[in-house]
Write a structure and sequence with these properties.
- The complex is a heterodimer.
- Chain A is an all-alpha fold.
- Chain A has three domains: about 50 residues, no CATH class; about 140 residues, no CATH class; about 220 residues, MetI-like (MetI-like fold), CATH 1.10.3720.
- In chain A, about 65% of the residues lie in helices and about 5% in strands.
- Chain A contains 20 helices and four strands.
- In chain A, a hairpin with a 6-residue loop joins β1 and β2.
- Chain A is extended.
- The two termini of chain A are about 55 Å apart.
- Chain B is of the alpha+beta class.
- Chain B contains eight helices and 19 strands.
- In chain B, α2 crosses α3 and α2 runs parallel beside α4.
- Chain B is elongated and about 75 Å long.
- The chains are: A mainly alpha, B alpha+beta.
- The interface between A and B is medium-sized, with 20 and 27 residues.
């Protein structure tokens, strides 16, 4: 004990009057308050975890793990039944690229029969159909007759459908047997696997995802720029007007917030369509001929116009909150020091609004990247964004794994941006209203 | 000093200013300043002093009249071409630039070469004893340091005229007094012309060559500090500058430099007529607390005395304040120096007081 006291590093730690370490005493004193604060947020925390984190985590995990081919959850008993056991064993024994032999076909036939018995064949067919399109019916058709098949199974199966010999199909089944796969990410980036399991680019005409990612990023960046150009003067006006006037103007800025997104989007349809208000006015004033009405909707133009309008408040508000406290004396000082009004703006005012530009830009960009309803309604085919494709895979093609892969890529991109912003500007400088 | 012989460097000629077209914030302002003068605009808030400064700087336009700088009208010259240095109340140091960058800014926008810039920035910082702070940001400086940097920035491009808008308002008392001297010394050393706006009369009196007392958009008096304090021209100035006791009455008799005033309670007192002219006129007599005498041996010969009752004795360290009841007023204050043998008057005591007729000024009744 005497050693400990003479130790200089020990003697430097502060202690309370009765010799206990100060930090421990402080922690004890504050523990009660911390616990109470925690209990207050606990309901929200549970709510978020149950309704948000767990489902999203599950969803995202589907992008690397889709058990549809090898596992079936019985609806009645809730038990997990392994599927295609023999076939998976065969895959394990034989390396990639092995020509499927009689044993393989026997295992497949047994698997199909078992799948039909457990009513899981639809799930299996759908799973393989993701990789090799048009194979779903082949699975159901073959499974119906699988029980009655006689050896040799290879001939018997090929008899039902020639395509059973397709090496791509076997490659797909091999991949689907793995519990961990990056294939959905490959698909989301326009790559696929050939029969030997090598990663190759998909054919030009089927490559859509990279194009859509690019379009989403470019359009979002463009919309962000537009909202900045349009929003900056408004925010400046709001910040410099006397409070009485600026409050009124603020209501106009906020008005769209209180209107349904759907209403705003559909009113753009009314305005922009070729028989719509704007075209009518232009034709009536003779600005354009009746036969050259402008196509401003159901294309990228429509998406850009409607989204810029809808996202504008998200740019104006952070800008405003940064501009409001900037004292007019800064610009005055710059002017008195000999700067023209343009120089004073560029060198003194603008740099002080950077946190607002960053916050507004980041907010609008992130919202735009994930925007769904507006492009779905006014985007036509050329104005669709990646989120519309994610929705398509969630609702129509039911390829949730691919949807999850696309969504995770999008999420990763947004997080990367956020990280970049933090490095360049600093999150502490972010001001959101 | 009131009528400078040289052509004025700064001149306000019949300047008026209105913000709303209904009321005049500045009414018919005429003011001439010679080169090198330190002039303070002093007045309560809303008296138009800051508006005058802003018109001179070019941030407000005069509604009527001419403002001339070095003989040339500057009404239509934008602020950045006037070449006037300005120090703001909140310093207005650019938060995103370092101290050195702040100082380099006026030189940079004038297109000065980088090496010259650095040398001048360095000199300016040395001048305010901030030589080691060039790389800091304004947020890392204390209030007094910011004030010095703001001062250096307003001076670095060597303007001939520097405007200061309540520059010491945000500092604590001790620092403020210290900075007052520094600004004063800089003014003397550099020979610049300074227009200084403040509502602090001590500041105005200690620093200025002349003080313009503003009220209600009009200059009430423009005079050197001692004259302003000792010979206020009207009751507003008397009341605004320093402490002062007021007694209302009517002129009983008047000579060239002496007036006898009968107070409302009937007593007679002596005073110097300032802007009263005729017998029977209502007047307000103003007497500084430190000029009130209570020792009969100090009374002016032949002066009237007036009966007073001690109500309160306040010990203030360097001086004593004695609150008296005089001619029905409960707030008549007498100030006496705390020196060896000085008498401390006890409450309840009654005694005659008096003053030199020159120290009591009969002004217009407000």
């Amino acid at each position: 004990m005497s050693d400990a006291v003479s130790d200089p590093s020990r003697s430097e730690t502060l202690t309370t009057a009765d010799g206990k370490p100060l930090k421990a005493a402080l922690a004890r004193a504050q523990a009660r308050n911390r616990r109470r604060a925690f209990y207050l947020v606990l309901p929200l925390l549970l709510f978020v975890v149950v309704t948000f984190l767990i489902p999203i985590g599950q969803m995202l995990s589907m992008s690397v793990n889709n058990p549809a081919f090898y596992s079936w959850k019985d609806r009645d008993t809730g038990e997990k039944v392994p599927l295609m056991v023999d076939l998976r064993a065969w895959f394990d024994e034989n390396p990639v690229g092995t020509e499927p032999d009689e044993a393989a076909y026997a295992a497949l036939a047994a698997g199909l029969a078992h799948a039909r018995e457990t009513k899981s064949i639809g799930q299996i067919g759908t799973r393989i159909n993701y990789e090799v399109s048009g194979t779903r019916s082949m699975f159901t058709k073959s499974a119906r007759r699988a029980e009655k098949l006689e050896p040799p199974f290879k001939e018997a199966l090929l008899d039902i459908d020639e395509d059973w010999a397709d090496p791509r199909l076997w490659s797909a089944m091999r991949n689907a047997s793995k519990s961990f796969t990056v294939d959905f990410y490959l698909a989301a980036l326009d790559y696929t696997r050939d029969a030997d399991g090598n990663v190759v680019k998909v054919e030009e005409e089927r490559a859509v995802y990279i194009l859509l990612f690019k379009r989403t990023l470019v359009l979002s960046a463009f919309i962000t720029l537009l909202t900045l150009v349009l929003g900056f003067p408004i925010a400046h006006l709001l910040a410099t007007l006397p409070l009485r006037h600026s409050n009124l103007l603020m209501i106009f800025v906020l008005l769209p917030f209180w209107t349904s997104l759907l209403v705003r989007t559909t009113s753009w349809i009314v305005l922009l369509q070729s028989q719509g208000v704007i075209n009518d006015v232009w034709v009536a004033t003779g600005l354009i001929g009746d036969e050259n009405r402008l196509q401003m909707i159901y294309n990228q133009t429509g998406t850009v116009i409607a989204m810029t309008h809808i996202l504008l408040p998200f740019m104006v508000l952070p800008l405003y909150s940064v501009m409001r406290p900037i004292d007019p004396s800064y610009v005055r000082a710059a002017r008195s020091l000999g700067a023209t009004s343009w120089t004073a703006f560029r060198r003194v005012y603008l740099p002080q609004t950077v946190p607002g530009i960053g916050a507004g830009g980041l907010l609008v960009f992130i919202l735009a990247v994930g925007y769904y309803i507006t492009p779905a309604l006014v985007g036509g085919s050329s104005g669709q964004l990646i989120s519309n494709l994610i929705a398509f895979h969630m609702q129509k093609s039911l390829n949730w794994s691919l949807a999850a892969a696309l969504a995770s890529l999008l999420l990763a991109g947004v997080l990367l941006l956020y990280w970049l912003y933090d490095r360049l500007v600093g999150i502490d400088n972010l001001k959101l209203g | 000093m009131t009528e400078p012989a040289d052509p004025p460097f700064v001149e306000f000629d019949r300047v008026q200013k209105s913000y709303d077209g209904e009321t005049l914030v500045v009414k018919d302002l005429n003011l001439q300043m010679p080169k090198g003068e330190f002039l303070t605009m002093l007045g309560p808030s809303g008296s138009g002093k800051t508006t005058c400064l802003m018109m001179l700087a070019g941030f407000e336009t005069a509604t009527h009249g001419d403002i001339r700088l070095d003989g040339k009208p500057i009404n239509n010259i934008p602020p950045h071409k006037r070449g006037i240095g300005m120090v703001f109340q909140n310093y207005a140091l650019f938060p995103h630039m370092t101290v050195a960058e702040n100082l380099a800014f006026p030189l940079e926008v004038r297109g000065e070469a980088k090496t010259d810039r650095e040398a001048r920035v360095h000199t300016a910082l040395e001048m305010v004893q901030m030589g080691d702070f060039g790389a800091r940001r304004p947020a890392q400086l204390s209030g007094g340091q910011r004030q010095r940097v703001a001062l250096a920035r307003a001076l670095v491009f060597e303007p001939e005229l520097v405007l200061m808008d309540e520059p010491l308002g945000a500092l604590d008392k001790q620092l403020r007094e210290h900075m007052q001297f520094e600004i004063k010394h800089l003014h003397e050393k550099l020979g610049i012309t300074v227009v200084y706006v403040t509502h602090d009369q001590t500041e105005a009196l200690t620093m200025s060559d002349r003080v313009a007392v503003f009220n209600d958009g009009v200059i009430q008096q423009l005079a050197p500090p001692d004259e302003l304090y000792e010979r206020p021209q009207n009751s507003f100035v008397a009341g605004f500058i320093g402490e002062n006791n007021r007694l209302e009455g009517k002129i009983e008799g008047i000579e060239a430099d002496k007036a006898v005033v009968r107070l409302k309670t009937g007593e007679l007192i002596d005073a110097t007529p300032v802007n009263v002219t005729s017998v029977g006129q209502e007047t307000l007599v103003s007497i500084r607390p430190e000029r009130v005498e209570f020792k009969p041996e100090n009374f002016d010969e032949g002066a009237h005395t007036i009966e007073a009752e001690v109500l309160e004795f306040i010990y203030m360290g360097d001086s004593f304040r004695t609150r008296l009841r005089v001619a029905g007023h409960d707030d008549f204050v007498m100030k006496s120096r705390n020196m060896l043998g000085q008498e401390r008057l006890q409450p309840g005591r009654k005694l005659p007081i008096s003053w030199h007729p020159q120290d009591a000024r009969a002004l217009d009744a407000m």
